[in-house]
Write a structure and sequence with these properties.
Distance between the termini: 81 Å
Number of helices: 11
Strand order of the largest sheet: 1-3-2-4-5
Largest sheet: 5 strands, mixed
Mean pLDDT: 89
Number of strands: 5
CATH architecture of the largest domain: 3-Layer(aba) Sandwich
Strand content: 5-15%
Radius of gyration: 28 Å
Number of domains: 2
CATH topology of the largest domain: Glutaredoxin
Structural class: alpha+beta
Length: about 260
């Protein structure tokens, strides 16, 4: 009986509004008689699921296209107006200081995605040699308890030797699981392994210069809208996340090509 009333209601509405009832009238009809939709789904469950899945897939494709367009627009804007990070020559610079390409990395020693970023940057340096220099900056995330201590160790080592700081950086990323399990004892062992003075490192970790450098890095990352790790600036053009080598290559090659044209 209820189904009959629903059908009669629908017929009445169509008769009232003509063969093509308005969106508002149909919306009202369905809101007042939701069983119309429920009955249709119940009678055709497979068609309903297929339609929903197709719509979801199409929505994902469109969203991906929009993200790609937004990302490309952002890159184009940053090529015109590159971001300008602070470059402190007193801090470690990996690679030739006069390299035409500067990659500033905002990273977290405990972040697994940053470990992927480390591998990618390593490949970039192998590919481009003296054309690229890397400046490592800190963005330790709250939920990585060893990220900030590792950053303090790194900066304390850097006060002794830039070369040793780079070695510390490489060893920690190449043995990230040991950082999580061994914590400070592991970092102590790395300091000893690279030949730095552990007592001095322990003292300098608490110094104002180390804490101020880390705080400044975090503030700069926030200013450039890096909330997660890793984040990169390639001559001022940003890449947010553990992008593959090919994405770095696109930006680097374009920078190099444009520099030869100017």
């Amino acid at each position: 009986m209820n189904s009959l009333i629903t059908i009669l209601t629908a017929v009445s509405v169509i008769a009232l509004f003509g063969c093509t009832p308005s969106k508002e009238s149909l919306t009202k009809l369905i809101e007042e008689n939701p069983e119309i939709v429920f009955n249709a789904i119940e009678k055709n469950p497979k068609a309903f699921i297929d339609t929903v899945n197709k719509a979801a897939k199409n929505a994902q494709v469109e969203a991906a296209k929009q993200r790609e367009m937004d990302e490309q627009a952002k890159i184009e804007e940053e090529f015109k107006n590159p971001k300008k990070p602070t470059i402190d020559e007193k801090r470690p610079i990996f690679g030739k200081k006069s390299a035409p390409i500067t990659i500033v990395e905002y990273s977290d020693f405990e972040c697994p995605y940053c470990s992927r970023g480390y591998d990618t940057v390593k490949k970039v340096r192998e590919e481009y040699g003296d054309k690229v220099r890397v400046i490592y900056k800190h963005l330790p995330l709250d939920f990585h308890p060893m990220a900030e201590p590792a950053a303090q160790y790194y900066e304390a080592v850097a006060l002794q030797s830039h070369d040793k700081a780079e070695k510390f950086h490489d060893i920690v990323f190449e043995n990230q699981s040991e950082l999580k399990s061994g914590k400070e004892k592991y970092l102590d062992s790395v300091v000893k392994k690279i030949g730095a003075n552990l007592s001095k490192v322990k003292k300098d970790m608490e110094s104002s210069i180390v804490k101020e450098r880390i705080a400044a890095d975090m503030a700069e990352a926030k200013k450039f809208d890096f909330s997660g790790t890793p984040g990169f600036l390639i001559n001022g053009v940003s890449l947010k996340g553990a992008y593959p080598f090919d994405e770095f290559k696109k930006v680097i090659d374009r920078h190099l090509e444009e520099s030869t044209q100017n």
